[in-house]
Structure to design on (287 residues):
């Protein structure tokens, strides 16, 4: 039985769907029973558990051959996000140690090996380290930035003719589609545990903010240019859109880590996904 968390999001849903298509036994973890009904109709078992509820998560992991999990982003306006994340990390590690699934695949991120200065990415390190210490075979799927992150900015860029971002618009950095992440996550679960393993995943190519703007322009048929925003202005904009101060500051720090060259891979080579930026942007734009 493969247990999959995050099925209401981009990657977990692909992991679960891929496994079900392969006729693998799947149990999905959802916070509310109603969210599990579509998965039940597809043939999955359903476990209701909040990822901060160690006891419920332990029950969900009973008999698991493999477990796909992630550290979901905190609510946009939630203050004290460190406590929110710690609750998930503690419950996840407690449940894993109690239920002892055969293998854990944890969706991590590029740069998770870097101790500090990477914004929200640094918050993944405690879960990676806890899984290392647990003695349970664990695979860290360190993915690049999601193509889908551009989705919330597309309409504003098309309407205003400019894509604003805190990363210098000429810097190309790794990005990947969540579809590719989910497919690789499913494959890793089926492959099984090999002690502690790191798999780094990028898309077919690296892209700059200027590349993204040009792609949006190509798809929309309207002129769109890119403009680099000073990081303090980026932080102010995010808080103006309702982000908590600490979350906005983390995103600003992450942008700075790309600009400075701090953020990068640990391994000499990475796996490559197949979905291009243009393919995913066309889907997001309904084109």
């Amino acid at each position: 039985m493969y247990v999959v968390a995050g099925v209401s999001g981009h990657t977990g849903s692909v992991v679960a769907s891929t496994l079900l298509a392969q006729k693998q036994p799947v149990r999905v973890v959802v916070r509310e029973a109603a969210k599990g009904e579509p998965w039940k109709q597809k043939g999955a078992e359903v476990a209701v558990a909040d990822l901060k509820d160690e006891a419920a998560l332990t029950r969900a992991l009973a008999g698991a051959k493999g477990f796909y999990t992630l550290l979901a982003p905190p609510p946009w306006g939630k203050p004290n996000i460190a406590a929110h994340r710690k609750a998930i990390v503690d419950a996840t590690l407690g449940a894993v140690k109690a239920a002892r699934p055969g293998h854990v695949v944890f969706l991590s991120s590029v740069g998770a090996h870097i101790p500090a200065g990477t914004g929200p990415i640094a918050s993944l390190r405690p879960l990676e380290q806890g899984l290392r210490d647990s003695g349970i075979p664990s695979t860290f799927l360190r993915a690049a930035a999601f193509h889908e992150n551009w989705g919330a900015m597309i309409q504003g860029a098309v309407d205003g003719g400019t894509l604003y971002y805190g990363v210098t618009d000429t810097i190309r950095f790794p990005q990947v589609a969540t579809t590719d992440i989910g497919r690789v996550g499913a494959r890793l679960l089926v492959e099984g545990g090999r002690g502690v393993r790191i798999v780094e995943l990028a898309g077919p190519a690296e892209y700059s903010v200027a590349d993204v703007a040009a792609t949006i322009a190509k798809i929309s048929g309207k002129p769109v240019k890119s403009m680099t925003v000073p990081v303090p202005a980026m932080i102010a904009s995010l808080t103006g859109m309702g982000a908590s101060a600490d979350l906005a500051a983390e995103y600003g720090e992450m942008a700075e880590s790309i600009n400075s060259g701090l953020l990068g891979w640990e391994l000499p080579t990475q796996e490559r996904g197949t979905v291009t930026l243009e393919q995913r942007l066309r889907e997001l734009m309904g084109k």
About this structure: The chain is about 45% helix and 20% strand. The CA atoms of residues 29 and 268 lie 34 Å apart.
